[in-house]
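[Q] Does anyone have a clean structure-token version of this?
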Amino acid sequence: MKLNAYLSGGMEYAQNNGADWRVELESWLKRELRHGSFNPVKASERFLSSRYPGIDFRAAKSDDFNRHKEIAAEIVRLDSSEIILHSDYIICYYDESAQRGAGTKGELTVAALFGKPVYLIKGMPIADMPSWVIGCTTEMFDDFEELRKFLRDKFLH
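[A] Here you go.
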């Protein structure tokens, strides 16, 4: 059975929508562990271009609030369903961009509610993290290399 990881973390307020670490980790998961992954950056791009071509989702928050709200609600349902139905564990990079937004907190809550392990990489001091996020977390790591070692030990031995 192929396992799947959901890659959670800041997007709305992150540099390059948080794509960089996700692309790198996605490749590593596939190559090293033979695990699949759900990259919400790529999924959102596909969703927006197919369902709402030509609409600037971020600008719509100011320009067309009702349309923005409608699109955001669909994204919440899609991402939450992905966690519930198709993800075996969640990898979360929690930094200032994740803290500023709300999606990551929501994703971790859904994961915790449905008993999905949450492996969190600390991108900020733990004292600055919300207790709610800490409460949703299964394991915490200081960096991506520490996470990779944990995942190798967990899934390859």
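[Q] Thanks! Anything notable?
[A] Residues 4-156 form a domain with the Rossmann fold fold (CATH 3.40.50.450).
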